[in-house]
Every structure is written in structure tokens, then in C-alpha cells.
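Backbone-to-sequence.
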């Protein structure tokens, strides 16, 4: 008998060229650049990873997205959680895949947005609440006036929030956009980035959603191991949540030391797949909060982006992934939880992808199908 639990896979749109990436990292840059250049950093380290039949696709091609949707549907994936990059009214990036999905209402995929609300910076920059998205491609200052800030997040005021909401409303009205209790689902990846403004903005958006005919917004924030005051619901971003995010000062010091040593020696931090998943299941078993959505992880290896300063999950296999995912689905069924957020559909630069590759072919996609079908 099939499971009623719905798996939503994180979807990265960073696989088509945009003028900003051309300017910052060189003409034609996408996440494939780092994936292709990756090299093994220890014995048994499977790098570079290669998509099946060497298809380094571009997400501005509708046939590519159509094929992705077909693969996801065949594996039983319920939908995609598409990363949303909105910096201000005049700067929002990597929107081609979501716009293409919206313009093809016959494509059978459910979807939602996860707003990665952070500025983009260069690796050497000390700017807070910002992502260094391409450290291995970062060769230093582009010139004497380079501040290190590439794209600045500006929440703005209510007028700006209205413009942002109206942009999202086009998608919310799509019957395929994921909704819970007639509320469009919207995730926030960095709830600690000015939570006061976020709370005020989301309250305003909830009212706008009601004025637009919905019952409000279903807001979900990434759980950062702290008190979540931004949204009523949260999700666990795995494998970081159970694998290596620790809140004690001692653990933070140890993690920083590991990263520093890794950068000096070229040896990334390694984590065992079984131990990470045992913790995922243990945390799920212990959870009593009905407003928490559990996360799942197909793998992790961000050395294409961070080389020796990265993290690698080792000793994984499609069969072990299938077994652990089945266990998490069982827990969700017993606890009455409807969704699992899976990392990821296509995070090739972080070694977290379901898409077929040269080493495993369709085995991880088939593992999801087996887990859902018991």
C-alpha cells in the first residue's frame, strides 16, 4: 500500500546563466562550473559527480524542466520547493524555472517557494546575514572599489512588501501551487535575518492573502535550533539540522577548528550517513511539536563549492537511503504528519541530488519510489 506522506524536494534554479553571474564569476557561470572542477580530496571521495549521459542541462530550456517533472512524478515526488531570490523590487534573480512552470499549466508538478532572504557577498567579505554562493570561483577583489557586496537584500517598507506580494500572488493563484487549508505555503530560509521586520511583513502579507480570496498564508521557517518567533510553523533543514548544527559554544569552536584545518590541509569534515540518519530518526521520534515538518537527506558534499573547508557525508547507498526514508515515512504516518522536506532534487554543488548520475543511474529516484510504496 502506498504512503499518504508527501515528499517535497528542494529545487535549485542556479543552472542557467544570468548577467549578474557573468559579471561576478565570468561569462557563462552556473553551478555546473564548480561541479565540473571538483576533485577527490581523500581516498574513496567520489568527485567529480557527473549527471547521467553528461547532460549538464540549462534550466532556461523548457524540455529540461519537463523531463525533470516527469522523473519526479515517476518517483512519487509530490512537488518542488523552489528557492526564491528576491533582494528588492528591482533585483530578483534566477526566476526562469519558476516562470516557465507557471507558463505551462499542463506540467503536472506541485510547487512552492522558499525565500533565501540574504544578501550575496564575496567569500572574503565580513558582511553579516549574507551568503558566499561561489567561494571556489571567487578569486578576490574585482577592483579597488569592490566592497564584497554582490546583491543586497532590502526588505523596504509596506509599499515594497506589496510589490513583492503581488509578484508572488501570480504563483499563489496557480492550482498547482501547494496550499494547506486554502493557504499558499511560503517558506523562509533565514528567519534570524531581522525577525522583527519579517513578522510585520508576514502579518501584512497574510492580510493581503485574505483580501485575495485565500484563508491567509501558511508560513514555515527553517528551524535554526532557536526560538522561532517569525512563523507558526517550522521545518528541519537536513542534513545540517541533525548532522552538524550544534548550539553549544564548545561545539561551535570545534566546528570552526575543523573548517580551518580543512582549508589548510585540503581535507573536508566527514560525517557518516548512517549516524546522521539515526539522529534524524531519533529527533523525529522525540518531537512533540505538531507544527514541525521533518527533513530528509539524500546526501551531502559541498566540496565543489568549498573544497577542503567543506563537509562530506560518507558511506551512503541507495539501499540505505531507502531504508532510512521508509523509517521516517513510518514515523510521519504514526504522528499524523503529511509532509517531508527532502534535500534535494538538484543541489549538485552540495552533493544532495536525486537526479540520475553516472555512478548511481536512477537508483536514488527508485529508492524514493520504493520507500513511498513500501
Amino acid at each position: 500500500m502506498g504512503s499518504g506522506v508527501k515528499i517535497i524536494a528542494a529545487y535549485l534554479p542556479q543552472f542557467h546563466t544570468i548577467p549578474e553571474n557573468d559579471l561576478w564569476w565570468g561569462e557563462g557561470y552556473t553551478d555546473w562550473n564548480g561541479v565540473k572542477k571538483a576533485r577527490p580530496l581523500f581516498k574513496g571521495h567520489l568527485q567529480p559527480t557527473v549527471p547521467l549521459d553528461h547532460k549538464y542541462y540549462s534550466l532556461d530550456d523548457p524540455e529540461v524542466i519537463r523531463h525533470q517533472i516527469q522523473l519526479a512524478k515517476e518517483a512519487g515526488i509530490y512537488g518542488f520547493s523552489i528557492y526564491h531570490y528576491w533582494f528588492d523590487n528591482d533585483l530578483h534573480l534566477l526566476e526562469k524555472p519558476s516562470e516557465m512552470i507557471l507558463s505551462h499549466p499542463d506540467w503536472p508538478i506541485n510547487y512552492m517557494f522558499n525565500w533565501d532572504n540574504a544578501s550575496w557577498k564575496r567569500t572574503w567579505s565580513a558582511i553579516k546575514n549574507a551568503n558566499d554562493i561561489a567561494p571556489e570561483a571567487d578569486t578576490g577583489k574585482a577592483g579597488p572599489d569592490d566592497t564584497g557586496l554582490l546583491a543586497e537584500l532590502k526588505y523596504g517598507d509596506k509599499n515594497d512588501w506589496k510589490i513583492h506580494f503581488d509578484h508572488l500572488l501570480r504563483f499563489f493563484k496557480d492550482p498547482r501551487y501547494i496550499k494547506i487549508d486554502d493557504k499558499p505555503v511560503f517558506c523562509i530560509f533565514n528567519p534570524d535575518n531581522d525577525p522583527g521586520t519579517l513578522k510585520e511583513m508576514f502579518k501584512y502579507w497574510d492580510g493581503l492573502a485574505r483580501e485575495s480570496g485565500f484563508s491567509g498564508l501558511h508560513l514555515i521557517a527553517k528551524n535554526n535550533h532557536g526560538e522561532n518567533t517569525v512563523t507558526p510553523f517550522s521545518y528541519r533543514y537536513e542534513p545540517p539540522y541533525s548532522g552538524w548544527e550544534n548550539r553549544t559554544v564548545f561545539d561551535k569552536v570545534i566546528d570552526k577548528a575543523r573548517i580551518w584545518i580543512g582549508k589548510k590541509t585540503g581535507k573536508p569534515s566527514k560525517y557518516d550517513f548512517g549516524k546522521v540518519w539515526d539522529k534524524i530518526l531519533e529527533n523525529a521520534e522525540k518531537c512533540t511539536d505538531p507544527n514541525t515538518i521533518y527533513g530528509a537527506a539524500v546526501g551531502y558534499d559541498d566540496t565543489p563549492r568549498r573544497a577542503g573547508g567543506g563537509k562530506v557525508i560518507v558511506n551512503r547507498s541507495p539501499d540505505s537511503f531507502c531504508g532510512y526514508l521508509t523509517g521516517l515515512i513510518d514515523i510521519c504516518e504514526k504522528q499524523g504528519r503529511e509532509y517531508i522536506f527532502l534535500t534535494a532534487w538538484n543541489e549538485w554543488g552540495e552533493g544532495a541530488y536525486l537526479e540520475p548520475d553516472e555512478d548511481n543511474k536512477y537508483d536514488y529516484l527508485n529508492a524514493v519510489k520504493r520507500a513511498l510504496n513500501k
